[in-house]
Amino acid sequence: MSEMTRAPEKRKTIFSGIQPSGTLTLGNYIGALRNFARLQDDYDCIFCVVDEHAITVRQNPADLRRRCLELAAIYIASGIDPEKNLIYCQSHVSAHAELAWILNCFTYMGELSRMTQFKAKSAAHADNINAGLFTYPVLMAADILLYQTDLVPVGVDQKQHLELCRDIAIRFNGVYGDVFTVPEGYIPKVGAKIMSLQDPTRKMSKSDPEETFISLLDGPDTIRRKLKRAVTDSDASIRFDPENKPGVSNLLSIMSALGAGEISALETEFEGLGYGELKSRAADCVIAALEPLQAEFRRLIADKAYLQGVINASAEKAGYLANKTLRKVQKKVGFAAR
């Protein structure tokens, strides 16, 4: 086939899901959300509000409903175009739960019991160690495999789940033929790892106490207060040294990630200055970076009919794609024709 007549190469599919529980943080924005907008021109992107995953921990129903719409608004406010991508709620596409049941029957108890996140969450919620928490990785596998996903953006805490997803797909394909695309992890260009403001040896997490993280929707006064209280150290020099000066290094990383300059240039700029100046400048950077997102979020969340329309239209398209895979799987395992 000549260059003139060669068919265009099929774009790869990326799937990513975020739970509508807790509050998205500055770390989520720098590490994931702002990168998603950069993928949409080169990939077919599916962004799921994984509300079924969220209920493995007890949720207030009204809060969960509100957060689903808020997360859809944050996706769009961070630059994700709902005309180019799918933004929908997991619970609106029943194929997720249907495929998860089938995949449960191709997943071994021993595999699930080795999941470190299950152990950690069981320890944190000892009064609610439910079956959904145990089989959470199988639902995650269904989320991914339904869309013949090629690439899944994953952090360190989800790598083990993706490996299990790949094992399940390979196992199923080994029995029934080439049914699922076996997904790969998508590792974006190395960016800053944003740490907790109060314990800078740990990653910033929305499940930690509020003073340890900056929420995407925190106002300027709140951002300044949290950064003013950020842990530093007794050595007054401002230099990047994650091992010995994790708090100071974290603030430099945040500033650099938000466009304030290379870390080496920031070290030179702050030479001879104190931590108060560093924290004040870091607050200026964060406020300036989040202001456009927050303004767009406020505009979107005021138009709930529009947001509902986006997730409904996306769910219809997602359902069509998901059911193509689900019907193939149901036929392979021998379910009666419908």
- Give the count of structural domains: 2
Our Rg estimate from Cα atoms comes to 22 Å
**H and E string:** EHEHHEHHHHEHEHHHHH
Largest beta-sheet characterization: 3 strands, parallel
Instruction: Determine the fraction of residues in helical runs and give it as a percent range.
Output: 40-55%
Instruction: Kindly report the name of the CATH homologous superfamily of the largest domain.
Output: HUPs
Structure description:
The chain has 338 residues and is mostly helical. The chain folds into 2 domains: 13-182 and 303-333, Rossmann fold (3-Layer(aba) Sandwich); 210-299, Tyrosyl-Transfer RNA Synthetase. 52% of the residues lie in helices and 7% in strands. Strands 1-2-3 form a 3-stranded parallel beta sheet. It has a two-stranded parallel sheet with strand order 4-5. Strand 1 (13-18), helix 1 and strand 2 (44-49) form a beta-alpha-beta unit. Helix 4 (95-104) packs across helix 7 (131-145), helix 7 packs across helix 8 (159-176) and helix 10 (246-257) packs across helix 12.
Compile the SSE list and pairings:
Elements: E1 13-18, H1 26-39, E2 44-49, H2 51-54, H3 61-77, E3 86-89, H4 95-104, H5 109-113, H6 116-124, H7 131-145, E4 151-153, H8 159-176, E5 184-186, H9 220-228, H10 246-257, H11 263-269, H12 275-301, H13 304-333
Parallel strand pairs: 1-2, 2-3, 4-5
